[in-house]
Design brief:
237 residues, 46% helix, globular, alpha/beta, Glycerol-3-phosphate (1)-acyltransferase, seven-stranded mixed beta sheet
């Protein structure tokens, strides 16, 4: 059975995933150039992510969707279990958003350019001017229900356990007086750990937790980080 699955991966799955990715890049790039990235930067990519999950026999379940409103902008913060976090959130969160991404990801062929055209936010912490540029890009996007998704650990876990959270996403919530919504991703590490070359079939569960609102327009950053980490971790198996 494993042998047959490997044959399927090599002969069918991988070629189709490559074709689907290139086609999605083309559609998102052209659509965003001609009509803007609000719609074209999200919905074609949502379909792409669902196709990728379907091709690899990965089921995604979302819990707590009634905790959020499509008309409200949020800072979503999620644990980072593996590469399939991207497909799970993009395909199944059900709320229009932009990624906050490492600036180094801009160098990925086709994908880096597509993300730029779609309006995703590349984070540049190397200089004060880079930080200001990042904040300006975020301010431009965070309105009329548009949200951002951040992995505050900064990188995928190597062990399955959560790492410490960096402050950037939470400072963004403070700057723009937005609620923070913790997201728990459970199962993506089993589907494709960081050091794995190919995914395996599995089940990913996304739990959307209650928004953490600012009090009198302010967040207590250390408390916000601690609470977000605790809430996310509590829903992991």
């Amino acid at each position: 059975m494993i042998y047959l699955y490997r044959v399927y991966q090599i002969i069918i799955m991988i070629p189709l995933m490559i074709v689907a990715t290139l086609l999605a890049c083309l559609v998102v790039s052209l659509g965003s150039i001609m009509f803007g990235g609000r719609w074209w930067g999200y919905y074609p990519a949502m379909i792409w992510a669902r196709v990728m999950a379907w091709l690899t026999f990965v089921k995604v379940t979302v819990r707590g969707r009634d905790n959020i409103s499509k008309r409200q902008s949020y800072i979503f913060v999620a644990n980072h279990q593996g590469a399939y976090d991207i497909f799970a959130i993009y395909g199944f969160l059900g709320h229009n958003f932009k990624w906050m991404m490492k600036a180094s990801l801009r160098k990925i062929p086709f994908v880096g350019y597509t993300c730029e055209r779609a309006g995703h936010i590349y984070v540049d912490r190397s200089t004060p001017s880079g930080i200001r540029k990042t904040m300006t890009a975020a301010e431009k996007q965070l309105k009329d229900g548009m949200s951002v998704v951040v992995f505050p650990e900064g990188s995928r876990t190597r062990t399955g356990r959560m790492g410490a959270f960096k402050r950037g996403a939470f400072l963004l919530a403070q700057e723009f007086d937005l609620p923070v919504v913790p997201l728990t991703i459970d199962g993506a590490f089993r589907v494709m750990p960081r050091d794995s070359k190919l995914p395996r079939p599995g089940h990913i569960v996304i739990t959307i937790h209650q928004p953490i609102e600012a009090v009198d327009g302010k967040h207590d950053i250390p408390q916000l980080i601690e609470k977000s980490h605790r809430v996310i971790e509590a829903s992991l198996k």
